[in-house]
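Z., the sequence and structure:
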Amino acid sequence: MTRWLARPADLASAGMVQLVLILNSALMLYPIVIMVFAAFKPTAEIFARPFAPPDFSNTDNFVRIVEEANFLRYLGNSILVTGVSVALILVLGTMAAYAIARYRFALATPIFLVFLAGLMLPLKLAIIPLFVQMNGLGLIDSRLSLILIYVAMGLPSTVFIMTGFLRTLPGELEDAARIDGASEPRIMWSIMLPLCKPPLVIAGIHNAVPVWNDFFFPLIFIQSDARKTLPQGLTAFIGEYATDWGMLFAGLTIAALPITLVYIVLSRQFIAGMTQGVAK
């Protein structure tokens, strides 16, 4: 009888949760929808009818951004820098985390604490020493300078995420592989790493989003137009006296598309990694 009396309250609670989630989703999607609408409008219409649906057949802004600007070059630079940076972060971070989590040696804890210290100290505080160092290495106005900085920025969080997950894997897997004669690199890459797809997705998305959207470091280290990334290159549409808002919003829409697609494709692994972390 008590169970039946509690059911309306449970339904009301679930309904409130759903309502809050719907309102939160609407709040998050609202600026994205306005951005996409503005991408299909000329500047005058953006100010005259900012919230009205546009004529989606009007793709003039997208055509102009490709033909009149170096947008494709900016896009290619962002893809190159983000792809290489995230790949190196995942490879190096996983190797470091594997050594810390699966091997017992005296320096394991101090090394792990050094990586944790990297989470507490923003790299932007060291911008002057970084600039001096990159200038000494001849890497100013080079995409390599951005890649090195992003790898240094991403390793602490990746090591933290991967170490926590790798410590939960049973040691019997390694013991069985060693009995079968597998080498240590083979154990890591063929046995343990396939089990780490969820945390790898979490670490990848966690690092790809800030690298893709970063404006600060390209502004400091990139000087030539040919090497600019998307966030820096889109500032070309903002003038001192006039701004082409239609082209700017078209560029922002295209810039947001790759990361959004990656997140949609990997969303199941991302959610699986989060739930596995809670369960463990």
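The two ends are 36 Å apart (CA to CA). DSSP finds 14 helices and no strands in the chain.

Let me know what you think.
H.
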